[in-house]
Amino acid sequence: MARQRIVSIDIMRGLTLLLMLFVNDLNMDVAPAWMGHMQADFDGMGLADWVFPGFLFIMGMAIPFAFAARIEKGEANQDISKHILYRSLSLIVIGILMLNSGRVNPDLTGMSRNLWALLMYGSVFLIWNDYQQKDKTPFLVMGLRLLGIGILIMLVLKFRSGQEENGGSLIAGWWGILGLIGWGYLIASLVYLFFRDSVIKTFVAILFFLMLNILWASNLLEFLNPVKPFLGILIQGNVPLIVMTGLLAGLVIKKDSGNGHRKIILTLAACGAISLLAGFILRNWFILSKIQATPSWGLVCSGISFFVFGLIYIITDVFGKISWAAFFRPAGENSLTTYLAPDILYYLIWMTGVPVLIYKDSMNPWIVVGGSFVWAIAMVWLTALMKKIGISLKL
Questions:
Q1: Residues 16, 54: contact at Cβ < 8 Å?
Q2: What is the DSSP-derived secondary structure letter of residue 162?
Q3: Does residue 73 lie in a domain region?
Q4: Is 102 helix (H, G, I), strand (E, B) or coil?
């Protein structure tokens, strides 16, 4: 039997994306400090320090439902594994390209940074667009994807940063936001593929990555330095930890959906309280720091996410109120498009010099914050419009 899409997951994903677009656009020289990221050595959190972990959490929540649909269709583990690897690798590749777009040396590369980035994003949409008529026009779709691949290869070959690192070519660095998402998705998906709906085994996996995060933050994993450039996200443990707390929440919803709302709400609240308590206990040894990816910060963020999702679940699933979220729900259903489309506009604006972002130059916090909020809403509407005309990324 086909499973219905979990509305509350889409709504929270849309909410986190809306907030991500908002905080990414803010001029933090003027906006209130609590809206941005805290400094690496500061013991505390701002709004922006929760937004990305909130997205990682909700991504983990969606995994049991997405894989259950594939399993119900009769897909073998081998086919599901191929999907996991393809999706993870795609996110990692796009993340690396985005990370390096800011390192382009125009003189050495032979084109401006803005043009390189626009061609890169255009290629991403050509390759990974969900073409609605692909069955009717397979050769056209194949041609567009090959064109995108060709442009990307050309951009990679022409890329020069002028820096010593990696001979001036592309670097993996910290993998970029999408790269981190790709690594988190890979690890959490494989955990689910092996352990399926086992809450106990999933909890053990969470404890494993929590221990890795603690050991990493304590500088006790330095003997693994040779492989950190390749497996650093796994060794660090923080990203997998956050994604798998979301996976645990997804299992709670999936396993207890037939037992009424009360048990689900109480379980989510208990998990949130335990995560917050553990995070604040660990704060005695590790500060709350997104930049340092401390275990205390990861657990506190997961605790907040448990409660935020629980509230959304009560509003949407218990009381059936979903109309309030209609304007950003499309962002949750088309998350990758929502995240990438604004960057294309940014580079177009910077290239043409059209004064669209003049609100950023204001010294009035209300204008700066209001402008970024309007921008974020406009980007969500743009995603919905792009979807209607057949432009929507799907990995």
A1: yes
A2: S
A3: yes
A4: coil
CA distance linking residue 43 with residue 291, whole number of Å = 11
> Which tokens sit at 347?
């580079």
Residue 210 lies in a domain: yes
pLDDT band at 5 (very low <50, low <70, confident <90, very high): low
pLDDT digits (tens, 9 = 90+) for 92-144: 999 999 999 999 999 999 999 999 999 999 999 999 999 988 888 889 999 99
Long-range contacts, stretch 35-38, CB < 8 angstroms, 24+ apart: 35/369, 37/290, 37/291, 38/288, 38/289, 38/290, 38/291
* Cα 24 from Cα 341, distance rounded (Å): 13
Q: Give the model's pLDDT for residue 2.
A: 41
Beta bridge partners of 129: 393
Q: How many residues appear in the chain?
A: 395
Helix boundaries (H) for the chain: 7-25, 47-72, 77-101, 106-109, 113-128, 138-158, 176-195, 199-217, 228-236, 238-256, 261-282, 295-313, 329-333, 335-352, 365-388
Say how many domains are in the chain.
1
Percent of the chain with pLDDT over 70: 98
